[in-house]
TrEMBL record:
Assigned keywords, A-Z: Amino-acid biosynthesis, Histidine biosynthesis, Hydrolase, Methionine biosynthesis, Multifunctional enzyme, NADP, One-carbon metabolism, Oxidoreductase, Purine biosynthesis
GO biological process, one term: methionine biosynthetic process
Species of origin: Stakelama sediminis
GO MF annotation list: methenyltetrahydrofolate cyclohydrolase activity; methylenetetrahydrofolate dehydrogenase (NADP+) activity
Protein function: Catalyzes the oxidation of 5,10-methylenetetrahydrofolate to 5,10-methenyltetrahydrofolate and then the hydrolysis of 5,10-methenyltetrahydrofolate to 10-formyltetrahydrofolate.
This protein's name: Bifunctional protein FolD
EC number, as in UniProt: 1.5.1.5, 3.5.4.9
The organism's taxonomic lineage, starting at the top: Bacteria, Pseudomonadati, Pseudomonadota, Alphaproteobacteria, Sphingomonadales
Span of domain Tetrahydrofolate dehydrogenase/cyclohydrolase NAD(P)-binding: 140-281
Catalytic activity: (6R)-5,10-methylene-5,6,7,8-tetrahydrofolate + NADP(+) = (6R)-5,10-methenyltetrahydrofolate + NADPH; (6R)-5,10-methenyltetrahydrofolate + H2O = (6R)-10-formyltetrahydrofolate + H(+)
HAMAP family hit by this protein: THF_DHG_CYH (MF_01576)
Membership in a protein family: Belongs to the tetrahydrofolate dehydrogenase/cyclohydrolase family.
Length: 291
């Protein structure tokens, strides 16, 4: 193996500690803690674990956690009514509805009802528009975490060739927007991309977010490239990413592992976004570049 392993777990712990210190200071100046409401509908086992981790991480970061666990048969109208109550609750700075939702609920309808100023997931169309136009807003946590790891690894990204594999609203599209804003030359590849291996071979940065185990092969990777693996695929061999790790690690310059790479950054960035939301909502200044 030649690649350096990018330790997302360690980076996330550092970020969480910084957010925790700033959240304690916020509590002092605002006279209340920053608050995050997390809503889980149903009993998906992985979602259940993520929601529990988010609650624990919120409390450990000196913030208040409001957890709402609703039965799988909750109606869309009842969920919308809860979102409206959370929008109006001054103790709540950030609202997150855990995805996926049960099939009878339209996720986009729910996301669009969250106040954009409490949308710490950054999924609301207003925040997507702010990201595209360079206005301050909330950036989805997973791509924000990927960007932090990339900048920590490579420094200035300008002029680098980046390929984002996957075009979801949650990862692929915001990731491409973030890399574009950093002046990388960005290609979004997807299931209809012709000759994907050649497209990937040009890239200095590869972000794989396809949701298919071991999809990206080592032979596709340019020697020395930086590989960010967003995939979390549960297989008989355990948890694996979208990148064939062993193949890629023998050619890449640096690579994120699964687990322990991008995943932990998602929750750390959620806490970061909640802290930013709390400062904005309470009118308390947060020093530029503090986190
Ligand atoms: N409303 C949202 N729903 C979902 C999001 C999201 O950002 N907002 N992202 C994912 C799930 N997710 C957080 O919600 C998440 C996924 C993975 C991890 C993580 O730390 N993964 C570990 C492995 C943990 C495991 O064994 O499963 C790792 O990669 O090291 C944290 C959060 C979908 N839904």
């Amino acid at each position: 193996m030649t690649a350096q392993i990018i330790d997302g777990k360690a980076f996330a712990l550092g970020l969480r500690a910084r957010v925790g210190e700033l959240a304690a200071a916020f509590r002092g100046s605002a006279g209340r803690p920053a608050g995050l409401a997390v809503v889980l509908v149903g009993d998906d086992p992985a979602s259940n674990v993520y929601v529990r981790s988010k609650g624990k991480a919120t409390i450990a970061a000196n913030m208040e956690s409001f957890e709402h666990r609703l039965p799988a048969e909750t109606s869309q109208d009842d969920l919308l009514a809860l979102v409206e109550r959370l929008n109006a609750d001054d103790r709540v700075d950030g609202i997150l509805v855990q995805l996926p939702l049960p099939a009878h609920i339209d996720a986009q309808t729910i996301i669009t009802r969250i106040s954009p100023d409490k949308d710490v997931d950054g999924f609301h169309p207003v925040n997507a528009g702010r990201l595209m136009t360079g206005l301050p807003g909330f950036v989805p946590c997973t791509p924000l975490g990927c960007l932090m790891l990339l900048e920590d690894q490579l420094g200035d990204l300008s002029g680098l060739d980046a390929v984002v594999i996957g075009r979801s609203n949650i990862v692929g599209k915001p990731m491409a927007a973030l890399l574009t804003a950093k002046s990388a030359t960005v290609t979004i590849a997807h299931s209809r991309t012709r000759d994907l291996s050649s497209v990937v071979r040009r890239a200095d940065i590869i972000v794989a977010a396809v949701g298919r185990a071991d999809f990206v092969k080592g032979e596709w990777i340019k020697p020395g490239a930086t590989v960010i693996d967003v995939g979390i695929n549960r297989t008989d061999e355990g948890l694996v990413g979208d990148v064939d790790f062993d193949g890629a690690a023998s050619v890449a310059g640096a690579i994120t592992p699964v687990p322990g790479g991008v995943g932990p950054m998602t929750i750390a960035c959620l806490l970061r976004n909640t802290l930013v939301a709390a400062h904005r909502n309470a009118g308390v200044a947060l020093e530029e570049g503090a986190i």
